[in-house]
Automatic annotation (TrEMBL), chains A, B:
Cited Pfam families: M20_dimer, Peptidase_M20
An example molecular function term from Gene Ontology annotations: peptidase activity
Taxonomic classification: Bacteria, Pseudomonadati, Pseudomonadota, Alphaproteobacteria, Kordiimonadales
Domain Peptidase M20 dimerisation: 236-389
Record organism: Kordiimonas sediminis
Keyword terms of this UniProt record: Hydrolase, Metal-binding, Protease, Signal
Residues spanning the membrane: none
GO BP field: proteolysis
Domain of life per record: Bacteria
Protein name in UniProt: Acetylornithine deacetylase
UniProt signal peptide: 1-24
SUPFAM superfamilies for this protein: Zn-dependent exopeptidases
Length: 511, 511
């Protein structure tokens, strides 16, 4: 019952904002959710129990079949479509009397897992009293009687990214039906089975099925919410691309005693090359790299200034003494291009340490693009920079002769799946309508973020579904460990998602 | 028979050097070796088949029992001794009429293995037509009729480092007995079962058993021979120590999109810290680091100038366009301290690449000490340097509060097993005698190297057995992939080792 104490307090403070009608309907949805906690949770556990790394098409088909059955029970028609890789689900639920249509995107695949790094099995959804980092303890499911503590977490791959929307949306419809509230819009779904692999066939899927996706507004239901936990709409994403860089030393591993000082060490040359790309204060120093960057607009600056500043709280939670840009807030920092060294592999450390000079050293870079930057342009700028450091570039593993003839030799492996950013207007009529629906719910004013730091393949929808306004509506807690070990969803976020979806479905089609 | 063509040609060119007596006896030993190739090889295979990572005392005891049995057959008395860790073997063979005693050191443990990286199983000795790097193919043992091709390799952990000496020495005694040649010296052995772990209990073993090791000369039979393949004596070794360095980022893995640009990346700070320790041309830039270094003596400079220059050949074989010091030869470069980054671990690359900012990044350094440098002094200099870069040093994993309070925080983990270098005189009477025995054998003049680049715990013998001349007599090929994957011994090196040991045992005790 702890939960209700909190929401009553919140509604007292927010008394003057919501209309009476909305309040009553919102309350009905909350009551449904509260009463059906165990039922909703069982559905979510069932979905999370299915392995969903998109490289296994078989696994993804099992997920797709489960979801198909799940949405058909709520009156959707659907088809599973593919374009040579993992499945997508395209679905529709017509609502009598509705003039408008909302298209909802979510994805049901997850990042690859390294089970050895997880505290609990990634495909055995587990109840935790808190995140593992904060000392979370396992609570056996069968020991929960009555309500779940809303601060507890469900730990599993895709708990936060991105299996919650389909569960929450279907329970929003169940809750509305039970409360006698009719949706005001037709609902279309496109559920992506390969987002974490960069949605390599999405372009083809959109070319093949564009006509089934026409709508008045597209909601992208993915990504984490703001760290303040207030409701949030997001108007853009960064693009993403990845580059693996390999430098070379001796052809075979060499004894670091007999040859140390004499044989070139590829780890040293790789470090020098990487650091030539970043300044001491973390800025990208590759010539021309930021030439295409779209400036921050006045509307975006204003929205940024209204976002609660959580830098101090975040630094405490993450045990960071300072952030990279010191004076630049997290929300503003993601409007700049990112150049993040995500991996470095060159021989072992600790018990794996051996006295060897490595034949090669490799690093992996994740580049985050902002609006108007193109992958092709950045490839050119990075390669220009590398050559300017005196390096000869190869794109395949070099043979011994090539290695002999080039003291500075580097392999650049541009990974598949590069895509640009997307950023839409904060002041379109569709955005204004959506913002007003959310602002009429109990709680704080909706946070408007010009861009997520993360990436979604929204540019493809922008290209395929011309002129359709696309707005991101995240529902997962910020500390969901998305992509990492011990991914989790905070239980309150699941309950809240049901209310938010219900409010939009009820009100978006009304005048 | 290929081999004899080569040695006959060599002896023609060297006609004026060897005495007639030495020639005849040397020839007898060669004939024994040639005739018993399959028998010698079977013994070597048996020894190499026994796993010998010294952390497994049980495995090392199996090796020790085999060796005990093997040397007892040649009239040695022996004991297996321990000081709380892996076994050592101390043995003696008295020779009637001998006044002098030669003490021989070798080790029978090996570096840990990563079988996945090996082309053949590390403890299944395998015959190869060449090194794996040079396209070596497996030859089934039962397909070898007649002589082994002397350029072929035996691939197994410890084939090159360091199980060959015990086999070669026992067959040298067998060959001498068969040829009616009596040793001129008593023989003592100390066989180390934990050298690759830094011989952590050797100091105690020497304290407990010093009286059993008195001798006139100590031969250290370990390490690779010169790249020219000429016979070689070595008068020193570098010391060794290892340091693991860890820098810190966020407490939990962070999504590189949502937090990239904002959250400090420990991989970047680690690279900056490491590169602050090395100049662009590979020199160590840690203040005071080289203050203790013993200068190169005139005798050492002269010896260096007589060593065949194999830099060009080595660079070709290793597919290197240039060496670090460009004008500084390999043999001279190892008379300087080494600071080699042997490992760097911070997230995955290639298929293991994930869009994560790592909570920490770690590197492992192998420091190679030269004569008169002490580990204690270098710890102080490195820590001074790290603090001068603005870092707070911890030696244990820091908690969240410590991480919160220090933007520049580093964990330094000084690994166990640090030891100093050793370098002895090139012009002692014992060295002069030994050099003359080797120079009287067929082949080129003996190469005299002031120091190996690698490390052996000789300083402990220097301290325990005061005034005993200690000289290193390596027998393994330089390209044995010591410590790495696909370690191997070139077959000719095994045959040559038998001749060299026999010559020394025959002649060292004579006037």
């Amino acid at each position: 019952m702890k939960y209700f104490v909190k929401t009553i307090a919140a509604s007292v403070m927010a008394l003057s904002v919501p209309t009476l009608t909305a309040d009553a309907n919102e309350q009905s949805i909350r009551e449904y959710t509260n009463k059906h906690q165990h039922h909703i949770m069982k559905d979510f556990r069932d979905l999370l129990s299915m392995p969903n790394v998109s490289s296994s098409v078989d696994d993804m088909m099992v997920n797709a079949a489960w979801i198909t059955d799940y949405i058909h029970k709520r009156g959707f028609t659907s088809e599973i479509v593919t374009a040579g890789r993992a499945p997508y689900i395209i679905a529709e639920k017509k609502v009598s009397g509705a003039d408008k249509t909302v298209l909802i995107y979510a994805h049901f695949d997850g990042q690859p897992v390294e089970p050895a790094n997880w505290a609990t099995a990634p495909f055995t959804p587990t109840l935790l009293t808190a995140t593992i980092e904060n000392g979370g303890q396992v609570v056996p499911w069968d020991q929960v009687e009555g309500d779940f503590n809303p601060e507890w977490r469900i730990a599993a791959r895709s708990a936060g990214d991105d299996k919650a929307p389909v569960i929450a949306l279907m329970h929003a419809l169940d809750a509305m039906e039970q409360a006698g509230i009719s949706p005001s819009v037709n609902i279309k779904l496109i559920l992506d089975g390969e987002e974490e692999a960069g949605s390599p066939t999405l372009k083809q899927i959109l070319a093949d099925h564009r006509d089934k996706l026409e709508a008045d507004l597209m909601l992208f239901c993915d990504g984490p919410m703001h760290q303040s936990r207030d409701r949030q709409l997001v108007f853009g994403v960064r693009g993403s691309m990845a580059l693996d860089i390999t430098t070379y030393g001796p052809l075979a591993p060499l004894h670091s005693g007999h040859y140390g000082n004499w044989a070139p060490n590829p780890t040293e040359s790789l470090m020098k090359l990487l650091l030539s790309m970043k300044s001491e204060d973390g800025k990208i120093t590759i010539d021309g790299y930021s030439d295409q960057v779209r400036p921050i607009s006045n509307a975006e600056r204003e929205a940024l200034s209204n976002v609660p500043n959580v830098d101090t709280q975040m630094k405490h939670a993450l045990a960071l003494a300072e952030s990279v840009g010191k004076d630049i807030r997290l929300e503003e920092s993601v409007l700049s291009p990112g150049f993040i060294i995500r991996g470095f592999q060159a021989g072992g450390v600790g018990k794996q340490g051996r006295n060897i000079i490595q034949p090669s050293a490799s690093a992996s870079i994740n580049m985050r693009l902002v609006a108007d930057q193109t992958p092709e342009f950045l490839v050119e700028k990075v390669e220009d920079h590398v050559r300017a450091q005196g390096y000869t570039i190869v794109h395949e593993e070099p043979n011994a002769d090539i290695r002999r003839n080039h003291a500075k030799l580097v392999k650049l492996d541009w990974r598949a799946g590069a895509y640009p950013a997307f950023r839409s207007r904060l002041d379109s009529p569709e955005a204004v309508k959506l913002i007003s629906i959310l602002d009429n719910m109990e709680g704080n004013k909706t946070i408007l973020a010009p861009s997520l730091g993360g990436s979604l393949p929204i540019y493809l929808f922008e290209q395929a579904l011309e002129n359709m306004p696309i707005i991101i509506l995240p529902v997962a807690n910020h500390d969901n460990n998305q992509h990492g070990r011990n991914e989790n969803l905070r239980i309150q976020n699941l309950w809240d998602a049901i209310s938010v979806y219900a409010a939009i479905l009820e009100q978006y089609g009304t005048d």
